[in-house]
Amino acid sequence: MRCFLEPVTLYNPDADAIPRTHVHCVGTGPADIARRPVPSHQPDGQPARIRELTTGHDCMITEPARLTDLLLDIPTTEPTATGHGAA
């Protein structure tokens, strides 16, 4: 039971330098469920990179082709840790 009650704190400053892209599913859902807000900034202070899919939470089930296209496009269009996208 302790594994559910004791919070885990992970701190690795090197991980803050890894660029992140949030895939935000913006489809309709139950009105009484609040979506977790997407952070406005990355841990390193850079603006958040957000991609949206118009689908529910299970995008890998409901929109696998669109999700695949989006994920494959990220390395070519998003800046890397060095500030450049992939060639």
Outline of the structure:
Helices cover 25% and strands 11% of the residues. By secondary structure, it is of the alpha+beta class.
Detailed description of the structure:
This protein has about 90 residues and is α+β, with helices and mostly antiparallel strands. The chain has one domain (about 15-30, about 40-85). The chain contains 3 helices and 2 strands, in the order H-E-E-H-H. It has helices at about 1-5, 60, 65-75; strands at about 20-25, 50-55. The chain has a two-stranded parallel sheet with strand order 1-2. The chain is globular and about 35 Å long. The mean pLDDT is about 80. This is DUF4160 domain-containing protein. It comes from Pseudonocardia ailaonensis.
Notable traits:
two-stranded parallel ribbon, DUF4160 domain-containing protein, 25% helix, 87 residues
Number of helices: 3
N/C terminus separation: 49 Å
* Structural class category: alpha+beta
How would you characterize the largest beta sheet?
2 strands, parallel
Mean pLDDT score: 81
Report the helical percentage: 25-40%
Ranges where pLDDT stays below 50 over 5 or more residues in a row are none
- Tell me the fraction of residues in β-strands, as a range: 5-15%
Radius of gyration: 16 Å
Strand order, main sheet: write it out: 1-2
Tally of structural domains: 1
Overall strand count: 2
Large-scale geometry: globular
